[in-house]
């Protein structure tokens, strides 16, 4: 009897899980759509570019604000925290 209950629970869990075998509201059968995946992929690709640009500009940023390397690191960390 416990196997039947476990089997029914597993079927219900699979049906309710995202990307499970159950039909979605739209009936597409895909776990994630392009509206979610596109920004995630773009963010993953653009993050290294952003980090490279900041690393390249650190010397100029430090000179403009008249701070050393430690002050520049704190300044960039504060700016990135404020801008999100």
What is the element layout, followed by pairings?
Elements: H1 2-16, H2 34-64, H3 69-83
Helix pairs in contact: 2-3
Written overview of the protein:
With 84 residues, the protein is mostly helical. The radius of gyration is 24 Å and the shape is elongated. Helices cover 73% and strands 0% of the residues. It has helices spanning 2-16, 34-64, 69-83. It has three helices and no strands.
Structure summary:
This protein is an all-alpha fold and 84 residues long. The chain has three helices and no strands.
Number of helices: 3
**Quick one: biggest sheet?**
none
What class, by secondary structure content?
mainly alpha
Give me the Rg, rounded: 24 Å
Assess the beta-strand content as a share of residues. Answer: under 5%
- Low-confidence runs of at least 5 consecutive residues: 1-5
Number of strands: 0
SSE arrangement, N to C: HHH
What distance lies between the first and last C-alpha atoms, to the nearest angstrom? 53 Å
Instruction: State the helical fraction.
Output: over 70%
Mean pLDDT: 74
Shape, please?
elongated
Observed structural traits:
84 residues, 73% helix, 0% strand, mainly alpha
